[in-house]
Amino acid sequence: MSASISDVRTKVSSTFDQSMKDLKDLVRIPSVSWPSFDSHEVVRSAEAVAQLAQETGIFDSINILRSRVSGGDGFGQPAVVARREPGSGKPTILLYAHHDVQPPGDLGEWNTVPFEPTEQNGRLYGRGSADDKAGIMVHISSLRLLHELVDSVDVGIVLLVEGEEEFGSPSFENFLTDHHELLRADVIVVADSGNWNTETPALTTTLRGNATFKLTVKTLDHALHSGMFGGAVPDAFMAFSRLINSFYSENGSVAVEGLLTNTIATPDYLDSQMRTESGILDGVDLIGEGHVLERLWSQPAITVTGMDIPDVAHASNTLLPTVSARLSVRVAPGQSAEEAFAAVERHISEHVPFGAHVVIEDVNLGESFSTDTRGWAAQSITNALSQAWDCDVVNMGVGGSIPFISSFVSAFPGAQVLVTGVEDPDSRAHSPNESLHVESFKNAIVAETLFLAECNSRDI
Fold this sequence. Notes:
With 460 residues, the protein is α+β, with helices and mostly antiparallel strands. It has two domains: 5-207 and 368-456, 3-Layer(aba) Sandwich (Aminopeptidase), CATH 3.40.630.10; 210-264 and 289-365, Alpha-Beta Plaits. It contains 13 helices and 18 strands. A hairpin with a 2-residue loop joins strand 4 and strand 5. The longest helix has 23 residues, at 5-27. The protein is elongated and about 85 Å long.
């Protein structure tokens, strides 16, 4: 029999202090997976997660594993894989999260110490508190309680906690191939998204794809005196800015031929709410056209995320010979990342100003995602979320991209993929002052425990 909501709430409440303690311990480990940071901390984080998995008493095997980076010679960051085989006729549920985190960024913009978890006003502040160490602890906490709520744990469980998601999962494709049988599951629950708000749970049903690349624009073989040559010789930044401007229409929507848009159902949501949640300054207009959520969920976007040019403090009076930038293209669900990148590449070649030389390199592609919510697992987790929050679930899209989800879909085409999470509009994942809403964390544990108990009673 499935567990009752009252029993689950009681169990979660009685063990929640331990869940918070373990989460804080994980947040204290600065497990930044980027190559410029100490990789030992990512190893230490993986070891801590493996120990937590061991303490659940659920698994037949627990391993810390690596695979080779796609197209490279080295190995990726360590992932934890734990497996419990199912009883006869029972489903296997794969629970995904990641233990690596983003760099802290500018420490001066933090109100707390990034890797010292701090509770304030019902939120836990710290890098990784929401993205995604809380996701790990939702899984661990639910598994701890499962054997107390059911007569016999018969459902199969795979725990996969990746160690390089924040750096683009460069070895993930190989990892799925290398450990395919160990990871095989009927349902995949990805705890790396968010909720509609702190009072309303959500199931993420669509994600945009992405195409990122480095763009270099050159007009000169060396810098020139801006007074002696300015006005006759084009500098690289002038050409770069004209090229970037060609990506957009007057209202800021993307104007690249071949980038597709689509229309999807959207919940009630006002432009004013977007202004509040984004922190856009007074007097600054929102961009694009159509419903504001369609702009985020089902339309493309192009953003310059970084540039290599002299900073103001070291600027000299010269024409820049070269400008390089990192561009991020968000791709609407329903269009392949390869097709979208080809459209952008074609647009660039047709709009280069002044005959400037352009180089495109370091291209990374990630596919979009959409799910069918009619499957038994989607119905089950929707019911569990509704009970945990005592509120109807919102099926929402997300403007961001989680490319590894499409890798799951390709590797396990028969599995149902469900995307959940603990973040909310105030979590500020990837930004200074990242935080977790503590009550949402507790509700997420309740929901996943209910879901796993129901899976345990189901035959397939």
